[in-house]
Amino acid sequence: MNAEKDKVVTFHYTLTDAEGEVLDNSHDRKTPLSVLLGHGNIIPGLEKALEGRAAGDTFKVTVEPDEAYGSRNEDATQRVPKKYFQNAAKLKAGDTTVLSLKSGGHQIVTIVKVGMTAVDVDLNHPLAGETLTFAVEVTDVRDASAEELEHRHAHGAGGHQH
């Protein structure tokens, strides 16, 4: 079976930056990543590279910023009251954390400066502006369940956890 829209693709990956430094590696977690293709659950460049692949395929793909996390926007900073952060007292410049948004979503931010009552954050994704290379090993491709299609993402063994 080949990977395409509405198929669940399971794969191991090693992610490196333009200098070859390993940024992330699914092998360290022992469990591969499973994604429902065609629903925007991973960056576009990697999703496109998975299309047409089958279990057992291995490949490398380099993804430019416009197909990954976009270009950096140097003006994308914001001052946020400390009360919106968990463990605000422990935050320091350079840390990354997740902010809950009023819309119900979440955003990864990088701490720029911690003040007495507010925190300055960089709203760019930490990998914005980066050219990324993925070494991928596809371990499985399967039809998505009706529930996965309804929820628009893959579920792990035993169903969903949300």
Observed structural traits:
Chitinase A, domain 3; 5-stranded antiparallel sheet; 8% helix; 2 domains; 2 helices; 162 residues; 37% strand; Thrombin, subunit H; mainly beta; 4-stranded antiparallel sheet; globular
What does this structure look like?
- With 162 residues, the protein is mostly beta strands.
- The chain has 2 domains: 7-69 and 128-151, Roll (Chitinase A, domain 3), CATH 3.10.50; 77-122, Beta Barrel (Thrombin, subunit H), CATH 2.40.10.
- Helices cover 8% and strands 37% of the residues.
- The chain contains 2 helices and 9 strands.
- Strands 1, 2, 3, 4 and 9 form a 5-stranded antiparallel β-sheet that branches.
- The protein starts with 6 loop residues before the first strand and ends in an 11-residue tail after the last helix.
- The mean pLDDT is 92.
How are the SSEs ordered, and which strands pair?
Blueprint: E1 7-16, E2 22-25, E3 33-36, H1 44-50, E4 58-63, E5 77-81, E6 96-100, E7 106-114, E8 118-122, E9 132-143, H2 146-151
Antiparallel strand pairs: 1-2, 1-3, 1-9, 4-9, 5-8, 6-7, 7-8
Computed Rg: 18 Å
Report the strand count: 9
Question: Class of the largest domain in CATH?
Answer: Alpha Beta
State the helical fraction. under 10%
Multimeric status of the protein: single chain
Looking at the overall shape, the CATH architecture of the largest domain is Roll
CATH fold annotation of the largest domain: Chitinase A, domain 3
Quick description:
This protein is mainly β and 162 residues long. The chain has helices spanning 44-50, 146-151, and strands at 7-16, 22-25, 33-36, 58-63, 77-81, 96-100, 106-114, 118-122, 132-143.
